[in-house]
Amino acid sequence: AQKVTQAQTEISVVEKEDVTLDCVYETRDTTYYLFWYKQPPSGELVFLIRRNSFDEQNEISGRYSWNFQKSTSSFNFTITASQVVDSAVYFCALSEAQRGSYIPTFGRGTSLIVHP
Amino acid sequence: EAGVAQSPRYKIIEKRQSVAFWCNPISGHATLYWYQQILGQGPKLLIQFQNNGVVDDSQLPKDRFSAERLKGVDSTLKIQPAKLEDSAVYLCASSLVPAGASTDTQYFGPGTRLTVL
Questions:
Q1: Lowest CB count within 10 Å: B36, B41, B77, B110, which one?
Q2: Percent of chain A at pLDDT above 90?
């Protein structure tokens, strides 16, 4: 079973639309970490956010916001008023303690295309 | 602050040949990771170092892949011999805190795109 599921393979929106990228995770641990990364066409993964399992507060950073709900094992990412520069592949990742270290598992990614 | 450096950026080889990738992490970062990212998938961890020791290499195909981080700074990842299914982007990442610490944000390099013909 996948530990991190990003069901949306590709999303296409027009500039200024709001868009939500879904992430559902699976873990038996009580302590874990969730991440979102952006991978633009250049290929380098850019860190966006880290959230630990004990902090369910939603977070807002400019046009980006994240909704963490342990009850549904989801960590969704919303971009408000999308821009062409937001076009990228977005990865959600889960980091659990395994073999004495935190081992990250990435989802398959959601490709976001923002049209002008 | 300089980011994670990787070279080469692109490599094309024929199957059964050998190839090596190099990574220089962010200065002072104790933990270094190598990932394999096959087209259309998320990165998969191959090996994790803390300083010059291996923390986890459970997903490294050890019959053909090897990695080292001799002085606890740069690292090399080698494939010998390469197979067609090794075609992927190989990403290096580093993090400041030791493996196992609660904060484990990783910073990624640009990757090396390997094509095996």
A1: B41
A2: 69
- Give residue-wise pLDDT tens across range A53-95: 988 888 888 999 999 999 999 999 999 999 999 999 999 999 8
- Which amino acid is located at A108 in the chain? R
A14 touching chain B per CB within 8 A: no
Summarize pLDDT for B26-61 with one digit per residue, the tens: 998 989 999 999 998 999 999 999 888 898 898 999
Average pLDDT of span A83-108:
87
Residue of A nearest to B31 (CA): A101
Nearest chain A alpha carbon to B5: A44
- Distances from the Cα of A38 to the Cα of A80, A86, A109, B14, B108, angstroms: 16, 9, 9, 31, 11
Alpha-carbon distance values, A102 to A3, A95, B78, B88, B99 (Å) = 14, 6, 24, 24, 7
By DSSP bridging, strand A88-98 and strand A110-115 are antiparallel
Give the separation between CA B115 and CA B87, rounded to whole angstroms: 5
* Chain A residue with Cα closest to B40: A108
Q: Assess whether pLDDT exceeds 60 at residue A112.
A: yes
Reference A52, options A72, A70, A28; nearest CA is: A70
| Candidates A45, A52, A107; nearest CB to B108 | A45
Task: Say yes or no: B22 contacts chain A, CB-CB below 8 A.
Answer: no
Residue B39 CB-density burial (10 A; 0-12 exposed, 13-18 middle, 19+ buried): exposed
pLDDT of B98: 67
CA dihedral A8, A12, A14, A19 (to 10 degrees): 10
